[in-house]
Specification:
Length: 348
């Protein structure tokens, strides 16, 4: 079994989307040395320069010119945080004891979820809570609505058996992943296992492995196994997503492109399809950035055919597009247009 497949499957057990691999910490106070070290590490390992058409040398010139001897830690952090923000990637962060630099991809689109609207007009106040899942019958008892706000690492067979067993008689299922910022990738595989009847390749990935920005390993398969328990495979499943659906949420969304009975409804996800790797700077600050890429099965086929430039233009790292784009109107706070659309798709 090759390196990337092992990374994708073993990494979830070791870590969540918020963690990374660490390097030995060293101590230095020179702002130029800290900056150059960070720039070089990203230059050698960041995975989306070509996809995003980033001129990393030009970015270096822009921000290195802002350094000077004796600058404050705040000022240095601001410059280096801006360097990483230029990658426009929320798996890219700089962390010190006094601040955290991040991009904030969820703010690139409108807020497309309102918990109060859902509770007041769809699932009621006496909804079920099963582990990380919030759920209830909607549409006059015809459809199961299941909300998963994060991949917390607490999904297990007991709560999955209960949730998917409860809605076996439903005409369809709505799985709400809006504002799901990710978490433990293994949860994604557990959930996918309830939507398939056979071993399924759900995406492909590769890892940056050379000094050139386009040096990568061979594509490796991400494989989901059918669960031993109640599954929902022969009826429509509508997965609700938005710009706040990130990291493991985007991986799940990407994986649904391989499942014929599952459709994405809402807004483009926030991306985060590169697993993060990190370490410490000479001054002790922690950094991380994406070192892998992920693709649908169809995109992987085109890459193997030599059409990488064509696939790069689609740039799913900036977000997995929905099958049906639907946004909240907010002129009527008794309606969630995204849920209403999903209901209509299931019933009609």
């Amino acid at each position: 079994m090759k390196r990337l497949y092992l990374l994708l499957l073993i990494f979830p057990f070791l870590s969540s989307c918020e963690r990374a691999f660490f390097e030995e910490e060293i101590e230095e106070d020179d702002p130029f040395e800290a900056f150059d070290y960070l720039w070089q590490q990203a230059d050698l390992r960041y995975s989306y320069f070509e996809v995003k058409n980033i001129d990393w040398n030009s970015v270096r010139s822009t921000y290195r010119s802002q350094l000077y001897g004796g600058m404050s830690q705040d000022s240095l952090f601001n410059v280096m945080g801006s360097l990483l923000r230029s990658l426009k990637d929320d798996h890219t962060n700089l962390k010190s004891s006094f601040n955290v630099a991040y991009y904030g991809v969820r703010y690139n689109g409108p807020d497309n979820y309102d918990a109060r609207i859902v509770e007041d007009n769809y699932i009621g106040r006496q909804y079920f809570i099963s582990g990380p899942f919030v759920h209830n019958w909607i549409a006059n008892g015809q459809i199961g609505y299941v909300r998963l706000p994060a991949f917390t690492g607490t999904i297990d067979k007991i709560n999955l058996d209960y949730v998917f067993g409860k809605y076996q008689s439903a005409k369809g299922l709505i799985l709400d992943l809006r504002e799901n910022g990710g978490g433990v990738v293994n949860d994604m595989y557990e959930l996918l296992g309830r939507l398939i009847d056979q071993r399924t390749v759900v995406f492909y990935s590769r890892i940056r492995n050379g000094k050139d920005h386009n040096d990568f390993s061979d594509l490796e398969r991400g494989i989901a196994e059918p669960a031993d328990g109640p599954r929902f495979t022969n009826k429509p499943v509508m997965v609700l997503v938005d710009r706040g659906t990130y990291s493991a949420g985007s991986f799940f969304s990407l994986s649904t492109k391989s499942l014929i009975n599952v459709k994405l409804v809402g807004d483009t996800t926030g991306g985060g399809l590169g697993l993060p790797n990190g370490g410490h700077l000479p001054n002790g600050w922690f950094y991380r950035f994406s070192v892998t890429q992920a693709y649908t099965n169809e995109q992987a086929s085109r890459i193997k055919a030599g059409l990488i430039s064509e696939v790069n233009k689609e740039n799913y790292e900036k977000g997995v597009p929905p099958d049906y784009r639907v946004l909240l109107d907010r002129t009527d706070l008794t309606k969630d247009e995204v849920i209403d659309f999903a209901i209509d798709q299931i019933l009609n």
